[in-house]
Amino acid sequence: MEFNLEEELKKLPAKPGVYLMHAADDEIIYVGKAVKLCNRVRQYFQNSRKPTEKITRMVSNIAWFEYIVTDSEMEALVLECNLIKLHRPRYNTMLMDDKAYPYLRVTVEEEFPRVLLSRKRTRDHSRYFGPYPSGTSVREVLDLIHRLYGIRTCMRSLPRDIGKERPCLNYHIHQCLGPCTGLVSAEEYGVHVQNVMDLLSGGFGRLRRELEEKMKDAASRLEFEEAAHYRDLIDSVRHIAETQKITDSNSLDDRDMIACAVDGADAVVQVFFVREGKLIGREHFHVSVAEGDDETEIMTNFVKQYYAGTPFLPGEIFVRNELEEQEVLERWLSGKRGKKVVIRVPKRGNKEKLMELAASNAAMVLKQDKDRIRREEERTTGALKEIAGWLGLEKLWRMEAYDISNTSGLESVGSMVVFEGGKPKTGDYRKFKIRTVQGPNDYASMYEVLTRRFERGLKEQKDDIADSFTRMPDLLMMDGGRGQVNMALQVLGELGLSIPVCGMVKDDRHRTRGLYFNNVELPIDTHSEGFHLITRVQDEAHRFAITFHKNLRQKKQVHSVLDDIPGIGEKRRKALMHTFGDIYAIRAASAEELAEAEGMNRKSAEAVYGFFHPADQEEAQAVPALEDLSAEI
Prior knowledge:
Layout: H1 5-11, E1 17-22, E2 28-34, H2 37-43, H3 53-60, E3 64-69, H4 73-87, E4 94-95, E5 103-106, E6 115-118, E7 127-129, H5 135-149, H6 169-172, H7 186-200, H8 204-220, H9 224-242, E8 245-246, E9 255-263, E10 266-275, E11 278-288, H10 295-309, E12 316-318, H11 326-337, E13 342-344, H12 349-379, H13 381-391, E14 398-407, E15 410-420, E16 423-424, E17 430-433, H14 442-462, E18 475-478, H15 482-494, E19 501-506, E20 512-517, E21 520-523, H16 529-557, H17 570-580, H18 583-588, H19 591-595, H20 602-612, H21 617-622, H22 626-632
């Protein structure tokens, strides 16, 4: 049905809810929430308002809209967050990163608890510590815990499995107390677990003092290896503790400090994680914004999307400016946390200094990333523009390059590599086994590869099948000069395709010196980004073809004499080698000894014995000599 904008605007209810703006192809381009849908949605289409450039562009693309009514503004906020995460509309301010921060989980519900890395904080009986800024920092803490307290890492169900299996390696290297052996009681083990939780609660200073005392005591007893062990532990404790600066010695609260930096359509949000008064880490997030979005709008959308997905919520969230709908956000966050959450703007003191530090870090990350993106664009899309200029092409995005690899004509293969936007698109790479060509004929092999590639592409286009062959390249890159180019043009002509083809001409040292295009060799600047891209394409085509050829050749060469024995498959061959060690011992074994190997029976044992000890003289001549057996495995 045709969408009548004026009629649909009249039908909007004066209730809270979420609205979804659709483009002509039904794509959801914007999701928003409203206290009163009738007022909020109508504002987009009122001529009296002066909308931002972003809103103007968005409204010009709206073909129709729909809405979902909710019972409260809070429900609308939750639904808006879910729909934005699901549809990722192009005109919404979008959090580009989707990270789950790690926790340390102490399984106190178990009789012999473990300390585990966890990406989720669920409502169970375990104790959670964190979140930590990275998996690396968590693993450092875990390594220290195991060296200090010997907490188990196994999945055994204790005490049920005590004594059923041998203890693991950690027990033997003194990084596990070995509760599976029954030599440590649950009470003794529990003391170590409590020490772990004290440490994770911030007891690094006390632990360091205890270790220093033990180190001095060991040195006084001239036990220098023991003293060195404590010294190393002290260094580990100091390294981990140094990452946790005191930000407010008078507070043990958990809080997040959030600031952002904006440059056009790019923005970076920096979050400082403060737990129990200690700065335990920081992380930055890239945000996709539209021209004209101010910091308040960006931060409001970031808070919604970030805290909709993170399992941990601090009691305080500090931002530089008041957020939109701040009271509603606080109620929503408090409901998620189960305790009160307050959003504050620091005005002075340590909190304001830390907020400024977060803002300066965000600006620094944004500048570094823009420089990196600029350099990446120069070596990808910039390089494509250079190549297109040399060849006089209006459009150049997808390039395909081909190569042939064989050994004196044996196991001949072809490779197809694809670059889009100046970057390898490995999912579109394809391998070809040469079927119709005998001997080392690269031209005929390339003719076969290109014919198969483009015939299949045309067939899949006709059948409306989406595949890497369906997309035609903007440029074919042939590994060679006139001969390779003309052969490719012949294939394209036979199939009725018009695709530019150029050859990557090499010098006497097998280095690219120019491009052969339209019967002319074009010299190129060997210091340009375009030349470097051509070299990467050529090297990648070589690598992919050679790797495929080597794999095929190795599969053919890796062969065991046992494979020639009827009834001896891979499992029995491995069992024989595991039992007897080598082919010589297998040949020397009797049928009875062979039958005792795992997976063998009397019939298969007699087959192996009969193969190495044939009664027939002609069969005996066919058995490999003893000195040749190792070469055939």
